[in-house]
User: Fold these one by one.
Assistant:
Number 1:
Amino acid sequence: MKIAVLLKWVPDLVEELEVDDDGTGLDTEDLKFKLNEFDDHALEEALLLAGDDDEVIALAMGGEGSEKMLFTALAKGATRAIRLTGSSTEGTTGLATAFSQVLEAESCDLILTGVQSVDDRDGQLGPFMASKMGLPCISVVSEVSLSGQTASVMKEYAGGMMAEFEVDLPAVLGIQAARETPRYAPVSKIRQMQQTSTLEEFSITDTGTGSGSTVSGFSQPEGGSGAKMISDIEELAELLNGLGVV
Amino acid sequence: MFSEQERLAFIALIVICSILAWPGFSRMVKIIRSGGPAERSDGLVGRFTKMTIDVMLQKPIFRSRPIASILHAFIFFGFSFYILVNISDLLEAFVDDWTTIDKGPIFGSFNLLADLFSVLVLVGMIGMLFRRFIIKPKVFEFNENVLLHPKVKAGGIRKDSLLVGVFIILHVGSRWVGTALRMAESGQTDAWLPTASLLVPLFNDWSGESIELGIHVTWWLAMGLIVAFIPYFPRSKHIHLMIAPVNLALNRRTNIGELDSVSDPTAPGAKSLLELPWPQLVDPYACIMCTRCHEVCPAHESGTPLSPSALEINKRYLVNNNSGTLVLGEDIELLGNTISGDAVWSCTTCYSCVSICPVGNEPMYDIIEMRRNMVFDSNMPDDLAEVLRSIDEQGNSFGQSNRKRSKWSKELDIEIKDASKEPVDILWFVGDYASFNQSCTDTTRKVAEVLTAAEVDFGIIKKGERNAGNDVRRVGEEGLFESLAEQNIALLETCEFNRIVTTDPHTYNALKNEYPRLGGNYEVVHYSTLLVELLDSGSIELKNSHSGNATFHDPCYLGRYNGIFDAPRSVIERCGLKLVEMPRNRENSFCCGAGGGQIWMKDHDDMKQRPSEMRIEEALSVDVSKFLVACPKDMTMYSDAVKTGGNEDKIAVVDIIDLVHQAMSLDQTEEAEIVED
């Protein structure tokens, strides 16, 4: 079995985010990026699902962070790592197009992606890919088990409701949580991978012009004006009186 | 006096016992030789000379347990002298008419010493047995959750102790009684044999034949027993009398603040027994199973499943019971056989177990080798993995943006120089805890104020300083440690400074001892040392004096690891406080429980009481109201411990910089506080 995992390099929310001069995106000048944590779960689930004869292929767009993400995936136990090069992508649709090009060539049984990312809160990457490739897609998945050419998965709905699905493979799954905490890749093993293994490259062709929507404005959320601590009931009554509520 | 048959029987016994003993000894050597590489062959003459002096003075053993150590010294000196006694006894059997009785003052002195040492050995050995079997000190016990070899659980150590004890008593006792019988034979006592002479009247009624028989029986019990015991030696902990001196002679000579390099980066550390460096395979044979190491171990005392003693003992039982297959290369996995996984992650790397061991064992280094291997296999607690990821991604263990590292300085009225932008005399490497932890940043600011008031030309690296990596290395993450060190060294290369100061002993240890191997050579001082310098030079002027009693907690990485004991004490005393030492101080200081990555991991479920809480109780037992620290992690650990132990109204945790800050009157409100004191 071949399992593909899509890895994305996203802004690290630990840093203070700033809006760029155009007011249409993040100022990435000093911004630190990291692997999307949901993708880390997708990779962990793939590694746990894979048996000795199965292949886990990590995929990432070329550019900053791709080496770190892919060599880390290899250090964790991925069998192959492919870096996508050749064309820049725009938005999640562009990314889905790019990934689908390489996945068409690889013909994988299972494609795992993080359920969402900080720059794709709607979790569109999985569904976009599935529709481009004509595959079934289930998102917000937390448990996966395989049996022959079907997978049975648990999908979470609002309010914590869980539903069990059976899906024919190949399929795209948006992983919310792996069944185990994503493993830590020791730095010396990553360094070792950098010396002993190579990243495969796949050249993508034109990925189109995005989804057709553009960002017209981007801003920091407005801060509240602060809170007043009320110590006793009389003070509260007075305050409400003053506001004319009571 | 011995018949030919007896002489032949004795020679036959030697031959048989040597043949029986051979596999045990040869396998021991083979097992040790199959261990991993380690360099211990430098200056062998010096090593063995120093060891001989130390052993003759019984120095390693007198580090603790004075009464047991005195009993040991009796046995040790007696046994050492008994080498001569045994030679004389052999001559007695094989040389006709050989005797040392009535042969003038030289043989007389020999007899006197043999006589007195016999009694001392008997007193020592009976005392030891009394202690182990009648008094039964708690320190011999293991926490219930400690992994033990089945034979240890079945009472193997007690059995071995009893056998060895009875052997020594019979060996020495028989010789002593035999001497009395020889005097009884001639019908007179000897002033050179005062104690054996006391026994002579016991045999007054014995016939000549009975006495003759008694002499033969006691000789065989003394000399035959020693030969018969030889095959048991390699299986018994009594072999320590041969291996412990060798272990002590071949001990670690490198800087203890620097861990050994990984010998094979593609398979770091040790997964199985024979993957341990060879000196760590000498350890189990040297181990006398005294449990002194777990007596001082903060992890064991707090109830976790770690006992450094059990680790060595399990190793010993494994090499004893699997020597045949081990020499054929059938290795034994360490995890689950010598120690449990959660015990590996309970070690604080405080070094107490190594420094207290009377036979030079290094259980802590086994744990580090195992951690290296486990980390390489991504086998570690989730909370540790989380912190390592933060340190890798953000450069600090708090998972915060590294750009906030110097945020603590924004609240100061003074502007601290940026050492990465302008030259400074002293570069202050602040470290994670002093920078990020809210219970430390007040202290950090006070350091800045004191240094400014003392007109020290200092600066910090406002952007780019990363965790120094001391504890990263000690949890076994070699690669991350090297990456951190390389980044810090590259950053420090861009800075112009003469010395580095830090308040954090862990950072101090890494910069001073671990960085040189990677090309970072700096003069590093701990702030306590710098404060003493500034007090000496008059740059710090103390306007007020504190009063009252206080105690000081020696941080492991400042004291035991780097030998800095006096500087913080000097600061405390010069600030006017009367220093009252806790029972465990200086080299014997008790770890706060934070080191070796413990501060990043949650407490073990079995932990009965945190080491830091025990330490606060220890401080309260010497009746002080101030608990002084010189380490940001100590500030964190003990501030918490005082709260969780409900001792907030009894004792205050104070950093030594607070004392100086107040005594310099850097804050008017503080001056008022001092007067109140």
Number 2:
Amino acid sequence: MDSNLLSLLIWSPVIAGILVLATGGDERAGIARKLALGFSVAIFLLSIPLYTGFDTMTPDMQFTEHYPWISAFSIHYALGVDGISMPLILLTTLLTVVVVIAGWQVITDRVAQYMAAFLIMEGIMIGVFASLDAVLFYVFWEAMLIPMFLVIGIWGGPNRIYATIKFFLYTLLGSLLMLVAILYLYNASGGSFSILDYHALPIGLQPQILVFLAFFCAFAVKVPMFPVHTWLPDAHVEAPTGGSVILAAIMLKMGGYGFLRFSLPVTPDASHELAGFVIALSLIAVVYIALVALVQQDMKKLIAYSSISHMGFVTLGLFVFNAQGAEGAMMQMISHGFISGALFLCVGVLYDRMHSRLIESYGGIATPMPVFAAFMVLFAMANSGLPGTSGFVGEFLVILGAFQANPWFAILAALTLVFGAAYTLWMIKRVVYGKVASNAVAALDDLNGREILMLSILAGMVLLVGIWPNPFLEVMHASIDNLVQHVEVSKCPVICR
Amino acid sequence: MNLHTLQTALAIPDLFLAAMASVILVLGLFADEKKRDLLCYWLSVATLVSTAFLVIADFSTESAVAFNGLFVDDPMADLCKVAICLLSAVVFIYGRDYNRQRGLFKNEYYVLGLFAVCGMMVMSSANHLLTLYLGLELMSLCLYAMIAFYRDDQLAVESAMKYFVLGALASSILLYGMSLLYGMTGSLALPAIATQLAGVEPGDLSLALAVVLVVVALAFKLGAVPFHMWVPDVYHGSPTSTTAFISAAPKIAAFAIVLRLLIGGLGDQHGLWQEMLVILALLSVAAGNIIAIAQKNLKRLLAYSAISHMGFFLFGILSGTAAGYSASLFYVLVYATMSGAAFGLILYLSGKDFESDRLSDLRGLGRRSPGIALMVLILMFSMAGVPPTAGFFAKLSVIQALVDANLAWVAVTAVILAVIGAYYYLRIIKLVYFDPPEIERPLNSPADHQYTLALNVFLIVAILPWIGKLISLCNQAIARFVY
């Protein structure tokens, strides 16, 4: 199939961002906002044919584009999506609309630059998911850091500079090691940067392990996995609401996507060899980080730790090497995109009114804000994995997959359902219910139309995925099956497992 | 012997430049005093641009020698010359107002600049140790004078002195190395030296001594650690317009002589100099990046950044493969463009009686001027080697050459040091975007400065779709690099 849909999806947000930037200073903020909303909705509509035109029967790349770019190194401008990347692109385009709405009244300083940063970021993130050339992938992967760095640094909280520089350097170090691995693969494959060539490339066990570890540095930082997760709480707490949403909902998914696109298929033997190590780190994240989340005083920090814990499920699901686990991991990524995004928006709603993120500042907000309370409780339930919400589907599948690999993994992972419910519901109890904490809380206004709109979009998605996950599972089925089979076949020239 | 046998036609651009420099010098003596400087300035810029076009018009596809083998015209020389001329013209434009405000806007200044460019062009085309040395000294002497031109400024005079003494020392070391080579081979022509040395045993002590002396002298000229001491002082002390000039085009000329000497002349002795270069390069990248973190002065910071970039440039050379040399050429072209733009930005922010060279002067630039701030952003990310900028592809091609040459450990070290380097570039962006403004000077620079700067900076990103063409051009320049 030959179309330029993916290019359009990558470059139209970038151009839209430049146009929004061109509206200039804050005296024309209204135009910048409307332009940004118009563009983001248009781009979302533009991305729908990706779903409707998708052939669910084949694991092959679709909507492919292929042009030579740097012939001296045989770098190509190669794009394409399969059932793994396509849902993530739709997640990106939908959440960008939500983020633009979320920043509507809240951001009053340098509005055009704020909106432009998110639009440009959207294009770059779609580029990450759509690249089939390792250098192109790397370019998008790193380029994404620049707008995020600025978003946290310009519109962030009081400690934003520490947080944003930490965020940048952590991810940069991980990524550069990945670059060295890509260059190794380039030489090993006799001069190709095509990711699909790497999938078919036979490599011995020893180099596979080194390549795996180099990729692991990049993806584990992004996911983030214990013990390289420390940048995330800092970045989340300091980022403006929109930044937190994109960070949690999409950027973290790039780590998981990297495992699916690079680590598992390029180095299957090393993945098997080191699966125990990865699973151990995942389980530590799932259990230990959930305990850390329990004691947080700051709501954003709590949700940040909850994200790390939930992403532990993703890596666990990927490294048990069966279809349930991998599909569960994908569902968990999508669902977590909606839920964590929604929870950050909820905290943002409160913060805009009270300028505090501390749990102790609140109490009994169900009385002044009943509509908000309903939304927040729904998302909290979804976060703790209540059946009927999207949170349940992914966690259930991952636990199912883990059980096949080793019942103990499943038991430990299931513990998190208990802890997850504990920290989320305890926070809800202290914030939403109980006595009205203060006069300031009693005087809070309930949600306005804009806030109801953004939360409804996400609430709708959470329920849709929870009640009827088939449309999502269907598109990824063929690709995941193919991947799981691929990983089972050894790539070593001599037998190594 | 007539002009025909000398093949003078090959050197037309160089001769044109030298002739125009002399014309402008004489013109300065007779022209009306009021209009003299401006006339000479515009003539100089026009000369540089037309020289570049002369080179492009007759872009060689293979190498040919002229002046009985003293001078070679090959694709690499032409590529370097185009870049040298255009960058120097651009830097002249950046420095005009700055010079005018400080009484440096004199016709002599631009004549010196033109002769320096002439020296660089001779360096690019040197095929003989004497030509090479002549070009190098022509360039260096003009640069010393261009720094000392700001004679009321104590720092400028001091740094001119320092540059002169250390530059002379380096030149004498180079001459000593050359004399040893002459003694061993009986020739000063680089191709002849290469043939003569082909049979010499690698363990030969006098050859080793000659190679060491040549490498040391080149390291001095490039500013590689531990021969880098002059770089921060010269960058800092020189008037910024001159720093901009020194930081851009001469790096390309330096690339040319490194390539001519080490690969053209001493290519077979690769094993002898590779290890020295590994140490020089790693030390440069490490020291440059780490010491830069402590700097409070923007010009000094950029000087240390230059040291680390020279280290990266040496990585390509030391890999010993054609891909590596091509990567180095590409790297140096990108770096010189970025460096010229960086000093162009400082010049843009400076005003009368105001040197915008402290880091704190950049505070809140994002609010004072979003456009200029965006340029700083692009430039810093490009220098740090973060995609999507040309700086990333420069680093990528060098690291690729290292991995290709089985020097993966050097590549990994370089990569880790690059992350350390990213910190101080990020700090500049932090000052520009995240901090409130400290000074409220209005920014007003002439429109041509502004547009040239914008073009220069946005080229770093806008070239990406065509960057493959530029890399191929570098590859061709190196592939045909034969004597």
